[in-house]
């Protein structure tokens, strides 16, 4: 009996994590680094349509970064995948990785 309950709990947890991973993945945007301004904590990214941000067309725009250390992970010309959110201070990159 106890084993069955534990198994059911593990199954529920796994399903929850999978849903979260899929939701996060859906927001990833492909782009290219055009400019980095470490002093201002900003990065200029050229990117394709980002429906999660209400951007239907490809564009080049300036983003703030959540953590200045993110600007050291990439350099101008890098192809990247990133996630961003619309904050009061402007569009902010919350995650950035070099595209594989
Ligand atoms: Cu944009």
Q: CATH H level: which superfamily?
A: Copper binding periplasmic protein CusF
What's the main sheet like?
A: 5 strands, mixed, barrel
- The number of E-state strands comes to 5
Radius of gyration: 18 Å
Q: CATH class, please? A: Mainly Beta
Beta-strand share of residues? 35-45%
Task: Name the structural class.
Answer: alpha+beta
CATH architecture: Beta Barrel
CATH topology: OB fold (Dihydrolipoamide Acetyltransferase, E2P)
- The proportion of residues forming helix, as a percent range, comes to 25-40%
Give the tally of structural domains.
1
Secondary-structure topology with pairs:
Layout: H1 2-26, E1 29-37, E2 42-47, E3 59-65, E4 79-87, E5 90-98
Parallel strand pairs: 3-5
Antiparallel strand pairs: 1-2, 1-4, 2-3, 4-5
Bound molecules: copper (II) ion (CU).
Copper (II) ion (CU) is lined by residues 47, 50, 55, 59, 61.
Keywords: Signal
Pfam families: CusF_Ec
Signal peptide: 1-23
Summarize the structure in short.
The protein is α+β, with helices and mostly antiparallel strands and 100 residues long.
Report on the structure:
The structure is a single chain. The protein has 100 residues and is α+β, with helices and mostly antiparallel strands. It has one domain (28-98): Copper binding periplasmic protein CusF (OB fold (Dihydrolipoamide Acetyltransferase, E2P), Beta Barrel). It has one helix at residues 2-26; strands at 29-37, 42-47, 59-65, 79-87, 90-98. A five-stranded mixed β-barrel has the order 1-2-3-5-4. A hairpin with a 4-residue loop joins β1 (29-37) and β2. The structure holds copper (II) ion (CU). Residues 47, 50, 55, 59, 61 line the site of copper (II) ion (CU). It comes from Bradyrhizobium nitroreducens. Keywords: Signal.
